[in-house]
Amino acid sequence: MQLEAAVAIGRDTRPSSESLSRAVIDGVTALDSKYHDYGLVTTPQLHYIICCCNSEGRYGKPTLEGYYNKLSKAFSDLTKQAECGNKCVNVDGANGIGALKLKEMEKFLHSAITVQIFNDGSQGKLNHLCGADYVKVQQNPPQGIEMKPEERCCSFDGDADRIVYYYNDSAGHFHLLDGDKIATLISTFLKEMLVKVNLSLTMAVVQTAYANGSSTHYLEEIMKVPVYCAKTGVKHLHHKAQEFDIGVYFEANGHGTVLFSKKAEEQIRHLANMEQSNEKRKAAHTLQNLVDLINQTVGDAISDMLVIEAILSLKGFTVQQWDEIYTDLPNRQLKVKVADRKVIDTTDDERRTIKPPGLQEKIDDLTKKYNMSRAFARPSGTEDIVRVYAEADTQENADALAHEVCLAVFHLAGGIGDEPKPL
Ligand SMILES: CC(=O)N[C@H]1[C@@H](OP(=O)(O)O)O[C@H](CO)[C@@H](O)[C@@H]1O
Ligand SMILES: [Mg+2]
């Protein structure tokens, strides 16, 4: 308690946030410490501010304006080289803080991008039938958004640290571009730029067990990018990604970012300023702007959206072309209520169970019945449930496998309530 502390405080739009934040201020004041109340901020904005404070401003100015200016400048600089691409996107703000802050940011972006914000919190309830998690798990568009065919749309989650993209094709079919597709787009682009600048920096993608098998296959076999699996929860992915010069990490649900080592940042900045060859210098400049646009402290829906928009525009890619990089295996995520989720224990980064006895053998047997299949069950770290994931060659098979694994969990791991029903 000898060192002087400075506490940065921020809150989101939930009614409970105000009294919680007041309680923290009272506690900090009682301890005679300094604090700065940043008021309403997204989770990643607060992370950005803390990083600025802890790096004596090297990461940026520790204010919301500093955040908006840093990202807007990098985005405008990046996209002014792009010849084509309509930078126009519909955003589902999940009725949370992200909508508010994106609106606030618009004037800093000086029309470098047009965003139309839906579910901005003025009417609907937070995350109700909208938001990134709803869209990812339901594999459906959120309510309250206008979706013309082929139009690029995205959903933030309630505190704006996750993002997923989607669109309806001209036949009216819904296409989801989740965290795996985002990681693929970003790592493909980074790899192209690294080839141009000819820097030998290590790069890897970190995923979790929930990553679609097609994404892992594409990254490893086609892109030749090393892929690592970490336990669910961004802290695990973040730590693994720190082992590389460029570590791209994303959970399938859209939570992720890119980390650059000090060495990578230095080499990129050096080339961007000193390199003689025009083409190399330009690529280094692009990389440098990406470093500035990416919020390296944590997954950030606003920053990730701008990174994606910039890459699509620089590559001249439509959302359909991005989607076609690889085709997701049909998949299903379900949950089972159990009396005590601790009866399940896992190994292999949560891809296999070691407890209760017999469960993994049962999952293995069920999985063998289907083509291109994979399934696992793990206890949630945030809710009192067991999550089940399955993928297979068809949606029917993925649904059937997920249901059968739910039944196995229900019977072998102490399920409560009604027996899981088929979809
Ligand atoms: C399958 C899934 O989406 N799991 C989520 C969820 O964790 P669980 O441990 O699965 O409840 O909440 C975490 C925190 O937001 C997030 O990091 C993670 O990805
Ligand atoms: Mg969140």
Automatic annotation (TrEMBL):
Instruction: Tell me where on the tree of life, at the top rank, the source sits.
Output: Eukaryota
InterPro entries recorded = A-D-PHexomutase_a/b/a-I, A-D-PHexomutase_a/b/a-I/II/III, A-D-PHexomutase_C, A-D-PHexomutase_C_sf, AMG1_II, AMG1_III, PAGM
What is this protein called in UniProt?
phosphoacetylglucosamine mutase
Pfam families, per the entry:
AMG1_II (PF21405), AMG1_III (PF21404), PGM_PMM_I (PF02878), PGM_PMM_IV (PF00408)
Q: Which family does it belong to?
A: Belongs to the phosphohexose mutase family.
GO molecular function term, any single one: phosphoacetylglucosamine mutase activity
Query: What biological process terms from GO does the record include?
Result: carbohydrate metabolic process; hemopoiesis; UDP-N-acetylglucosamine biosynthetic process
Q: Which reaction does it catalyse?
A: N-acetyl-alpha-D-glucosamine 1-phosphate = N-acetyl-D-glucosamine 6-phosphate
- Positions bound to substrate: 251-253, 378-382, 387
Query: Which keywords belong to this entry?
Result: Isomerase, Magnesium, Metal-binding, Phosphoprotein
Q: Where does Mg(2+) bind?
A: 157, 159, 161
The record, for Gene3D superfamilies, names: Alpha-D-Glucose-1,6-Bisphosphate, subunit A, domain 3, Alpha-D-phosphohexomutase, C-terminal domain
The cofactor required is: Mg(2+)
Per the UniProt record, which EC number(s) apply here? 5.4.2.3
User: Can you give the residue ranges of the Alpha-D-phosphohexomutase C-terminal domain?
Assistant: 335-406
* Free-text cofactor note: Binds 1 Mg(2+) ion per subunit.
Residues of the Alpha-D-phosphohexomutase alpha/beta/alpha domain: 5-50
Q: Which pathway does the protein contribute to? A: Nucleotide-sugar biosynthesis; UDP-N-acetyl-alpha-D-glucosamine biosynthesis; N-acetyl-alpha-D-glucosamine 1-phosphate from alpha-D-glucosamine 6-phosphate (route I): step 2/2
Q: Which residues form the Phosphoacetylglucosamine mutase AMG1 domain?
A: 87-164, 178-316
